[in-house]
């Protein structure tokens, strides 16, 4: 008898289509999860906003496209904001389809950090699992996740321990880390020499701190990523001498890793409890050491003294001093860490064990 084929419905973020950059790191996480699960022979249907694209190696995935208005990211709302679902919301459409498709699948895996999917979980027969993509950035979201943990703790997973510590959970959390297709990131033994920074250009990412360090070093800073907050970008640009920022734009992964790999170091400057920090691991995958604050996910991803340097949060002086010690880091150790801790294979296996309760 043939073994039963396991089937999952994956639900993408309701903030932008896959490939838009608006969803931030979740976009890459969805694709990594798909790649990891496909390798394990799991059948996948993806429900995603219209316009979403998957890479050619994910062709076997059936995609159901949904049109509608984006959600506003919780991280750009006040901590006490109520739940808001716009008219003709894409979130509503994603879940209308997912709940029907889920009846013919073993489970639904949710990637959206939104109230609705968490709230409905105890009330539907379909099993919904959630990979929580942010720390607690709102009281409503914190409560709905805390409440779910009381009844259905096993349906929740997080990227890092520090991210999960934002919530009051009924038991030890499932931690999945993240996964990267390492065939897509090329290790560079030698840097070209420039300084790098990557991420959404938005206040919680602290680009101004990296620019202060770059100015002190008398260098310009290569910046990759989506300018999410134009006003903020203009403001910080005006604070530094012309040429301090070298805008590189939002690049597709193959181009991004090519430029990133030439950096002498990545300066990472989170101002919030970053759930993971994809760009930190992508840099290390290319052999680029990372200097960052001991805050959020990056504090768990960087081994200070081995794959980069961690300094106390918001300590600009320490950040600057750490950049002067970057040549003490062996670029090969950075790549090795990623191979050992954040491969696609291990990510897929962890997701499968979590959802299908394999020991
Ligand atoms: N990114 C990209 N092209 C760029 C710069 C960044 O595709 O030019 C992606 C990067 O691969 C990463 C995401 O942007 O997956 C940023 O995710 P991260 O986890 O670092 O932060 P988030 O945006 O989720 O807060």
Stated plainly, the CATH topology of the largest domain is called: Rossmann fold
If helices are DSSP runs of H or I spanning 4 or more residues, what is the number of helices? 13
**The CATH fourth-level homologous superfamily of the largest domain:** Glycogen Phosphorylase B
From the 3D coordinates, which CATH architecture of the largest domain would you assign?
3-Layer(aba) Sandwich
Succession of helices and strands: EHEEHEHEHEHEEHEHEHEHEHEHHH
Architecture overview:
The strands form two sheets. The chain has a seven-stranded parallel beta sheet, sandwiched between helices. The chain has a six-stranded parallel beta sheet with strand order 10-9-8-11-12-13, with helices on both faces. The radius of gyration is 20 Å and the shape is globular. Helix 1 crosses helix 13 (344-355), helix 6 (207-217) packs across helix 11 (316-323) and helix 9 (278-285) packs across helix 12. The protein has two domains: 7-179 and 343-356, Glycogen Phosphorylase B (Rossmann fold); 182-341, 3-Layer(aba) Sandwich (Rossmann fold), CATH 3.40.50. It has 359 residues and is α/β, with parallel strands linked by helices. Strand 12 (290-293), helix 10 (298-301) and strand 13 form a beta-alpha-beta unit. It has helices at residues 25-39, 90-101, 115-120, 139-152, 161-164, 207-217, 230-239, 253-260, 278-285, 298-301, 316-323, 331-341, 344-355; strands at 7-11, 43-49, 62-66, 107-110, 128-131, 156-158, 174-175, 194-198, 221-224, 245-249, 263-268, 290-293, 308-311. It is built from 13 helices and 13 strands. Helices cover 34% and strands 16% of the residues. The structure holds uridine-5'-diphosphate. Uridine-5'-diphosphate (UDP) binds at residues 24-25, 28, 198-200, 224-225, 250-251, 253, 256, 276-279, 282.
């Amino acid at each position: 008898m043939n073994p039963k084929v396991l089937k999952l419905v994956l639900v993408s973020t309701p903030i932008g289509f896959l490939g838009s950059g608006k969803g931030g790191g979740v976009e890459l996480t969805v694709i990594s999860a798909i790649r990891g699960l496909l390798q394990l022979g799991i059948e996948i249907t993806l429900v995603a906003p219209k316009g979403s694209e998957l890479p050619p190696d994910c062709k076997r995935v059936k995609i159901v496209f949904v049109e509608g208005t984006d959600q506003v990211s919780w991280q750009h709302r006040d901590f006490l904001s109520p739940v808001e679902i716009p008219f003709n919301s894409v979130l509503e459409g994603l879940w209308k389809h997912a709940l029907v498709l889920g009846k013919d699948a073993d489970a639904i895996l949710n990637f959206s950090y939104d109230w609705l999917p968490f709230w409905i979980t105890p009330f539907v027969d379909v099993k919904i699992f959630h990979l929580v993509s942010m720390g607690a950035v709102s009281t409503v979201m914190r409560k709905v996740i805390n409440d779910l943990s009381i009844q259905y703790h096993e349906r929740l997973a997080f990227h890092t321990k520090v991210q999960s510590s934002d919530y009051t959970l009924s038991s030890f959390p499932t931690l999945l880390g993240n996964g990267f297709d390492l065939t897509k990131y090329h290790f560079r033994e030698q840097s070209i020499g420039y300084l790098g920074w990557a991420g959404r250009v938005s206040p919680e990412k602290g680009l101004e701190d990296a620019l202060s360090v770059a100015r002190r070093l008398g260098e310009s800073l290569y910046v990759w990523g989506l300018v999410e907050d134009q006003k903020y970008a203009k403001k910080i640009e005006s604070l530094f001498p012309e040429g301090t920022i070298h805008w590189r734009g939002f690049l597709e992964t193959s181009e991004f890793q090519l430029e990133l790999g030439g950096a002498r170091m990545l300066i990472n400057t989170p101002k919030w409890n970053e759930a993971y920090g994809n760009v930190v691991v992508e840099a290390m995958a290319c052999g680029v050491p990372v200097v960052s604050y001991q805050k959020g996910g990056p504090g768990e991803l960087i081994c200070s003294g081995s794959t980069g340097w961690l300094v106390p949060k918001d300590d600009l002086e320490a950040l600057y001093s750490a950049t002067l010690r970057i040549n003490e880091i062996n670029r090969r150790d950075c790549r090795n860490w990623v191979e050992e801790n954040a491969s696609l294979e291990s990510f897929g296996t962890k997701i499968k064990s979590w959802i299908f309760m394999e020991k």
